Give the backbone structure.
Amino acid sequence: MTDEKNHMSFYEQRLQTLTAKPLTWAVTGVAGFIGSNLLQRLLTAEQRVVGLDNYVTGHRRNLAEVEREVGPARWKNFRMIDGDIRDPDVCRRAFDGADCVLHQAALGSVPLSLERPDETHAANVTGFINVLQAARSSRVRRFVYASSCAVYGEDPDSPKVEEQIGRSISPYATSKHMNELYADVFGRCYELSTVGLRYFNVYGRRQDPNGAYAAVIPKWIDAILAGDVVRIHGDGETSRDFVCVQDVVQANILAATAEPPPKEAPAVCNIGTGVETTLNQLFKGIRDSVQRTTARAKVEPIYGEPRAGDIRHSRADIGRARRLLGYEPQFALTQGLSETIDWYLAQRPSQVRPA
């Protein structure tokens, strides 16, 4: 038994401990891309979960898929609250009795924030204060929240380290920086234990490919599968650290159950892979993976103007997450893309696969 345990990852050991002694979790944005993946992992580990969502960016179909995946016995451990984090009473009701809060609800688009900064502020800042207040009044053990690599702004250095950020270049980035400031103040003034996770470019199953503000990976997968044009903003040499949603789920669970972070350091951690990929490399990787699966004709991208508010290069230094949380990415981009494309193909039952 000891040898078996030694071969388990730290994360697997933590899940085993949680399964033996379940906790009650509150997940905001539970019907969204990341939230629904968190829900599935927690229910699979026999946890009790209360979810909150207003379905502005989330979808009921995501919850329906989780229900099918986990089965009726585990689904009984989930309670859904339809509501908005801008309503303080709804937040308090969702967090009542929770051990841990995983706050994912936000308007997460740079272009949208440039068009409608007021809406971004209302959801991402006012809503954030509401969930902090509710977590404080409910005396939760740990409040984990989604921050973003967008806070690095104009900082030219790579990899990105938590201590050094630049001037914000979008309202979205500003809203996430304000989240970190408020979380730090609530930790120092009210002794609320918080951990912020600066997500880099997250991808995976259930990421919505539709809409003007869709993320690049689902948008390109969907376009290639449909035989549509793929557009790249700029020259394609913009680079990003693409992290699979399963690794983001890992980071949330570890952050919620880790020892309290040192008080002298801001409780924020980069969550990425530490590997940089250009958009040209990403496009080729997606195209090649789709071709192996569906034998689609070879396509080439169309290049356009760079997108306003985007930073040029972004790669995570994940040393702090490793030290404080025990985080270790498990999905290389090739493997993550393959599994993601398999999921999108499963949503297209008429898709022709090679014999």
